[in-house]
C-alpha cells in the first residue's frame, strides 16, 4: 500500500476523538447510575407492601385470623395497587424510550376535558370543593385519548387531593393555531422551589411520609409527563408555597412527524 495516502490524524483531531470518548464514558456512567437508582427505588417501594402481605397471609395460615372477607379484601387491594405500580412503571419506561404505542385519532378536546372533569367532580364535591372549567377549546386534536385522559386525571386528581376542603380547583383551557393549552390551578399548599426540579421524577414525593400513607404511588406526575411528551407536548409547573400550584400542559393539535 502507498503509505503516503494514509492520513495521519493531527493533535487537534486526536484531542477531538479523546473528548468525544470521554463524553460517551460520562453518559454511560450517568445511565448506569440512573438504572441503579431505579432498581433501588423499585426495591424500596415493593419491600413494605410485600412484607405486609406476607405477614398477613402467614397469620391467616396459622389460624390467628379468621378467613373472613373483611380480612381478605385489604390484601386484594394491596395486590391491585402493586400490579398498578408495575404497569405504571412499564408505561413510563416505554414512554422514556420513545417506544410507547399511541393509538391516535382526531378527538374533540373540549369533550375530552368535560369527560375528565365529570369523573373527578364526584371526588371534588365530596370535599365540598368547586371544580371549575374556564375557557373553551372547541377544536379537535390528534392524540391518543386514553393516554391524554390519564395524564389529565393524574394532574387534576392531584390538585383536588392536595387542596383543603372548601377551596377551589380551576381547569383553564386555551386553543391556539397549532396547540392547545390546559392550566390546572389549585389553592393547595404549593411546592417548595427546591423540590420543583425533582417533581416529575419517578417515586418523588414532596412529603414522603404523608403521601405514602395516603396511598399515592409517586408515579402520577412521571406518567403524565411521559404521556404528554410522547405526543410532542410539554408539561410544566409553577408553584408558590402557601398559595398554590399551576400545572400547565400544552399539546400539538396536528400530527407531528
Ligand atoms: P403521588 O402518587 O404521591 O401523588 P405524583 O407523582 O402524582 O405522586 O406526585 C408527586 C408528589 O408531588 C406528591 O407526592 C406531592 O407531594 C406533590 N404534588 C403533586 N401535585 C401537587 C399539587 N397539586 N399540590 C401540591 N403538591 C403536589
TrEMBL record:
It is a multi-pass membrane protein. It catalyses: ATP + protein L-histidine = ADP + protein N-phospho-L-histidine. Signal peptide: none annotated. It is found in: Cell membrane. Its main location: membrane. Keywords: ATP-binding, Cell membrane, Kinase, Membrane, Nucleotide-binding, Phosphoprotein, Transferase, Transmembrane, Transmembrane helix, Two-component regulatory system. Residues 1-33 form the HAMP domain. Its EC number is 2.7.13.3. One of its GO terms (cellular component) is plasma membrane. GO terms for molecular function: ATP binding; histidine phosphotransfer kinase activity; phosphorelay sensor kinase activity. It is an enzyme of class 2 (transferase). It comes from the Bacteria. This is histidine kinase. It comes from Planifilum fimeticola.
